[in-house]
Structures are given as C-alpha cells and as structure tokens.
Amino acid sequence: xxxxxxxxxxxxxxxxxxxxxxxxxxxxxxxxxxxxxxxxxxxxxxxxxxxxxxxxxxxxxxxxxxxxxxxxxxxxxxxxxxxxx
Length: 85
What we know:
The chain contains one helix and six strands, in the order αββββββ. By secondary structure, the protein is mostly beta strands. The protein has a domain at 25-83: Thrombin, subunit H.
C-alpha cells in the first residue's frame, strides 16, 4: 500500500500542466580586457552556443547542434566550421 501511494505521488505531479518549449538558443561572446574589465569585442547571435575552448591562436565554440566554430583571436572573425555527426 505504501509503495503504491509513493508511486502515485511520484507519477501524478509529472503528468499535469506539461509545458513544452521549442526555442532556438542564441548566445554571444564578449571579449573583456582583464585589467580594467573593458569590452574589447562582442560576437553576437551564435546559434546554440554551448561551450567555449580557448587556444593559443583561436577559440572554438561548440553548439548544441553538433557544430564547432573556430574564431581568430586577433580579428574575431569566423575562420572555420565543422559539423560533427
């Protein structure tokens, strides 16, 4: 009996008022000068941006769509794109 009540309490709240969202995440990168925290450059509107990896001459952004986007550290221009499968 106690197991049935516990199962009902765990199951029922998850079945009511279900809200589903279908929005594309769009993010950006702001490059900051560390001594005075001034903004050096902003890259906006990167679809699905999830994580960032900084390398000596570039940085790579991984997206939720399975892509890697490479940006140059000096010009901040996109210099590469790789679709992972």
